[in-house]
Design a protein that fits this description.
heterodimer; A: mainly beta; 7-stranded mixed β-sheet; 4-stranded antiparallel β-sheet; 0% helix; B: mainly beta; 5-stranded antiparallel β-sheet; 11 strands
Chain lengths: 115, 114
């Protein structure tokens, strides 16, 4: 069964460093998302992406964050200058159709630890 | 602002028991509601999606219901098994805005005792 994959599974970085989290969505899906979950807290929406542009973003998704679909298969989240509070599990998701009608399928997550 | 609440935060039941997990949301303007399962340290597995026009969805031993007007959903698990032990999250898609973001509850951590 097709699934969303994410790399790396765990990333440790120093505060102020740039990180890129990578995702390979399900191949026929057109809508892509990033969420994060700080330990012990709710899963929070960051951004949605469709047709090579951001369709919606949350207040969390400030100028330090960016997303890109560099080729036909990868979807990346970049954090330019990491802060301690960016430590969280980051989940990528994709859906074949709009989220209002279709299930979002989640990847296994990347645990980001900022020291 | 949409808020999703799941109470209690944790539940422990003996194997074989039928159980109901509750989810409530403050804004009834939703397109759909989804239930997910999360195992410790893992990603989210979609269990059921209920469109706002639907009342319930079933998959195997799972049945989810939706009462949009009262802002409530329940996930019914029949004949629970130790393998059902996990955190169960509900999430809604609003019918306002770009309609793309899921708003999650904090989840209910279920433990099924053998």
């Amino acid at each position: 069964e097709p699934e969303v994959t994410q790399t790396p599974s765990h990333q440790v970085t120093q505060m102020g460093q740039e990180v890129i989290l990578r995702c390979v969505p399900i191949s026929n899906h057109l809508y892509f998302y990033w969420y994060r979950q700080i330990l012990g807290q709710k899963v929070e929406f960051l951004v949605s992406f469709y047709n090579n542009e951001i369709s919606e973003k949350s207040e969390i998704f400030d100028d330090q964050f960016s997303v890109e679909r560099p080729d036909g298969s990868n979807f990346t989240l970049k954090i330019r200058s990491t802060k301690l509070e960016d430590s969280a599990m980051y989940f990528c998701a994709s859906s074949e159709d709009r989220a209002s009608t279709d299930t979002q399928y989640f990847g296994p997550g990347t645990r980001l630890t900022v020291l | 602002k949409q808020e999703v609440t799941q109470i209690p935060a944790a539940l422990s039941v003996p194997e074989g028991e039928n159980l109901v997990l509750n989810c409530s949301f403050t804004d009834s303007a939703i397109y759909n509601l989804q239930w997910f399962r999360q195992d410790p340290g893992k990603g989210l597995t979609s269990l059921l999606l209920i469109q706002s026009s639907q009342r319930e969805q079933t998959s195997g031993r799972l049945n989810a219901s939706l009462d949009k007007s009262s802002g409530r959903s329940t996930l019914y698990i029949a004949a629970s098994q130790p393998g059902d032990s996990a955190t169960y999250l509900c999430a809604v898609i609003p019918s306002t805005g770009a309609n793309s973001k899921l708003t999650f509850g904090k989840g209910i951590t279920l433990s099924v005792r053998p």
